[in-house]
Amino acid sequence: MKSIWPKNAFIYLLILVASIALFSSFVTPAEEAQEIDIAQVARLVRAGRVEYLEFSNDGSIELTVLENGQEVPYRSRKEPDVGLGETLINLGVTPEQIGEIGAIVPQRPSIWDNWGLILIQGIPLLLMFLFLMFMLRQAQSGNNQAMSFGKSKARMFAGDRPSVTFDDVAGAEEAKQELEEIVQFLKDPNRFTTLGARIPKGVLLVGHPGTGKTLMARAVAGEAGVPFFSISGSEFVEMFVGVGASRVRDLFDQAKRNSPCIVFVDEIDAVGRQRGAGLGGSHDEREQTLNQILVEMDGFDTDTNIIILAATNRPDILDPALLRPGRFDRRVVIDRPDRRGREAILKVHTRGKPLADDVDLEIMAKQTPGFTGADLENLVNEAAILAARANESAIGMEEMQEAVERVIAGPERRSRLISDSEKRVIAYHEAGHAVVQALLKHTDRVHKVTIIGRGQMGGYTMTLPEEDRTLQSKAKFEDELAGLLGGRASEQIVFGDITTGAGNDLKRATQIARSMVTEYAMTESMGQRTFGKKEELIFLGREISEQRDYGEEIATQIDREMRSIIDKAYDRALEILQKHRKELDRVAQTLIDEESIDAETFRSLLEEDAPQGEPQTAPAPA
User: Fold this and answer.
1) How many Å is the Cα radius of gyration of the chain?
2) Does residue 424 have a pLDDT over 90?
3) Which residues of 323-349 are buried (b: 16+ CB within 10 A; e: fewer)?
4) How far is Cα 597 from Cα 435, in angstroms, rounded to an integer?
C-alpha cells in the first residue's frame, strides 16, 4: 500500500506547530515575582542575599533572593524622575556590591530578543493565511471541475507509435479487408476524392462479445498512423440533462483539431438505442446525446478526414437514424473465428511464450469450436499459469488441454467429498450421456467423460464437433436431444429412480425443442411459420418484451409439440441404453475406478461388442 505521509506531511506539520503555539499561549509561569520597592532592593543587596540582579530597559529590576535555602523572585520599579543606578547608590549600595552580584546591564533591544512572543503571536496568523489559501485553491479546483463537467472524457492515443496493427489481429480476414479501405483513405485521401468517391463517415463493428471489435478499431488507427480517440457510450450519459450533448460537441471539436483521426465509440448501444420506445417513454439525456451525435456526423465535410468507428453486439436495437447512409453507412461483422482463424489467433497469443515440442496449435484449434478471440487469449493465459504452478519451463499440451476445460467448465473440484452411492449415480448419469451420443449418427464425438466436478457440475461429458457448422439439421437436433436425456434415462434404467442431476439437461432440451417449434418450423403440424416476436423493448426484459402473435389454441399446440419432441427423444435414449446395457455398465465402472476417461479409452470400451452408428428413427435431410 502506498504511504500517504509525503502527500499530507505539510498538513501534519501545520497541525503540530499550531498545537504547540496554542499550548504555549495558555501556559503561565509556575511562580509570579513579588513586587517590592527600591529601598527593599537596596537593603537586600547590602545584606548580600541577592543571587541575581538584572536591569531592564523599562527601568525595572528583576532579582532573585535566597530565602531559607530557596531562590525567590522579586521585582521592583524605579521611582519617577530618578535614575535607577543613582537610586541604588543613594540608598547605600556601592558599585562593588553590584559587581559582586553580577548584575546584567540592559543592551540595545533586538528583534530576536522576543522571538518566542513573535512565534506565539505570528504562527496563528500564518496558519489562518495558509488555510485561506488552501480554501481558495479548493474553490478554484471545484470551479475548474464544474467548468469541465461537459468536457469529453475521450482518451487520445497518438498515432506516431502504433501499439496495435493488423498483424496483431487474426481470425477476421474479411473484416480487415473491409477496414483496409479506411486506412488507405486516411493515408491518401486524394486517391478517392479525385474520383469523386466519398469514404464512409461511420463504420459500425458488429460482433459477439470478445470477438475483437475494440482491437480491430485500434489496429485501424495503428495502421493509419493517426490519432485515436476512444470513449465508451456510457461515458456520455450523466444524471444532468445536457451534459452528454456537451461532451459530444467537445469530442468532435477535439477530433477536428487533430484531423485526420479516428473516433472510436465502444458500446454505442448505450446511447444509440431506438428513440421513443418502451413504457417509460423517452429518456431526455440519452436522446439529446444521440441527437447531438447525429447532428455532428451530418456536419462533417468531405475534407474533414475524420472516421467514426463504433462497436456493438446489439445492432438490432440501434436507432434507424444511426444506420442510414451518410452516418454509419458501413457495417463490418466480426464473427466467431473458424478453425483456421482460431489457429491464427492462438499463434498470436502464444507469440513470445515458451511452448513445449508436443504443443500442436492445429489440434487445439479443433478442440475449441465456438471460442472467441478473448476465450483463446484466456485459454493461453490459463495454460501459462498451470505450467508455472507445476514449475515447468515451457507450456505443454497437457496444460493447454486442461486450460480448455477450465475455460468451458471451470476448475476441478477434487476436494469435494461424495459418498460411494452418489458417485455411482453420477458415473451412470455421465455414462448414459456418453453412450447415447456415441451411438447416434448426428451427434458430436465424445472427447472426455469425467465424474470430477467442475464449477457447479458434479461431472460432465465433453463433446467436440469434427468440423465447424453454420447450419443445424432437424436430425442433429433430435440426436442432440436424445444425448441430453441419456443421463436421466440411465438413472431410470439402473436405479429405477431419478435425481436432480438432469436439471441443466432438461433446461437445454426444453430450449432446443421450443426453438424447433417456434423458430425453425421443424414440425409438420405447425406449418411453415414462426411464433412470437423477438423485439426487445427498452425498460423491459427479454421474456416480458417477447410479443405473442398467436392465441391460446396455438400456445397449447406449441406445448403439445414440444412435449412430443422431448418424449420421443427420451424414448430413444431409453431404447439405446437398454440395448447396450453392457457398454453402459463398462463405462460407468471405469468412471468409478478411474474418475475420468479420454476419447481413446472411451472408444476402446465401446468397440468390444458395441457396433457404432445406431440407426436413426428420422431420416437425415438430403
Assistant:
1) 44
2) yes
3) beeebbebebebbbbebebbbbbbebb
4) 13
* pLDDT value of position 459: 87
Q: Give the total number of structural domains in the chain.
A: 4
More confident residue, 71 or 317: 317
* Rounded distance between C-alpha atoms, residue 324 and residue 322, angstroms: 6
Instruction: Determine the pLDDT at residue 42.
Output: 77
Choose the most confident range, by mean pLDDT, from 10-24, 467-481, 554-568: 554-568
Distance of CA 563 to the CA centre of its chain: 43
Model pLDDT for residues 257-269, shown as the tens digit of each residue? 888 888 888 888 8
Task: Confirm if 61 and 76 have CB atoms less than 8 A apart.
Answer: yes
Cell of residue 568, nine digits:
420421443
What Å distances lie between residue 563 and 139, 197, 321, 510, CA to CA?
A: 70, 58, 43, 9
State the Cα angle at 427 between 422 and 432, rounded to 5°: 130
Q: Are 347 and 329 members of one domain?
A: no
CA–CA distance, 455 with 409 (Å, rounded to integer): 6
Q: Is the pLDDT of residue 119 over 70?
A: no
Q: Long-range contacts made by residues 287-292, C-beta under 8 angstroms, separation at least 24?
A: 288/241, 288/242, 288/244, 288/245, 289/236, 289/237, 289/244, 289/245, 289/247, 289/248, 290/319, 290/322, 291/245, 292/244, 292/245, 292/248, 292/249
Q: Which domain holds residue 403?
A: 339-408
pLDDT by residue (tens digit) across 504-524? Answer: 999 999 999 999 999 999 998
What pLDDT is attached to residue 621? Answer: 33
Instruction: Compute the residue count for the chain.
Output: 622
Q: Based on the domain organization, do 426 and 557 belong to the same domain?
A: yes
Q: Are 526 and 561 in contact (CB under 8 A)?
A: yes
Q: Say yes or no: 327 and 366 in one domain.
A: no
Do the beta carbons of residue 220 and residue 334 sit within 8 Å?
no
Active site amino acids: 430
Same domain, 275 and 344: no
Quick one: 431 and 527 in the same domain? yes
Same domain, 437 and 553: yes
Q: Is 63 exposed, middle or buried (0-12, 13-18, 19+ CB in 10 A)?
A: buried
Amino acid at 517: V
Angle between helices 486-495 and 503-518 (to 10 degrees): 130
Q: At what angle do helices 486-495 and 552-579 cross, to 10 degrees?
A: 60
27 exposed, middle or buried (CB, 10 Å; 0-12, 13-18, 19+)? exposed
- CATH number for the domain spanning 500: value is 1.20.58.760
Task: Look up residue 449 and give its three cell numbers.
Answer: 467423460
Examine the pLDDT at 436 and tell me if it is beyond 90. yes
Q: Which of these, 489, 487, 479, lies nearest to 458 by C-alpha position?
A: 487
CB 331 within 8 A of CB 315: yes
Most confident listed range (127-141, 300-314, 484-498): 484-498
Asked if the model's pLDDT at residue 487 lies above 90, the reply is: yes
Q: State the pLDDT confidence band at 564, using cuts at 50, 70 and 90.
A: very high
Q: Say if residue 295 is in the same domain as residue 311.
A: yes
Given a cut of 70, whether residue 276 has pLDDT beyond it is no
**Residue 180: what pLDDT?**
86
Distance CA(191)–CA(189), nearest Å, equals: 5
Q: What is the mean pLDDT of residues 579-586?
A: 94
User: Is 331 within 8 Å of 206 (Cβ atoms)?
Assistant: yes
Taking the C-alpha atoms of residue 446 and residue 443, their distance in angstroms, rounded to an integer, is 9
| 161 vs 267, residue with greater confidence | 267
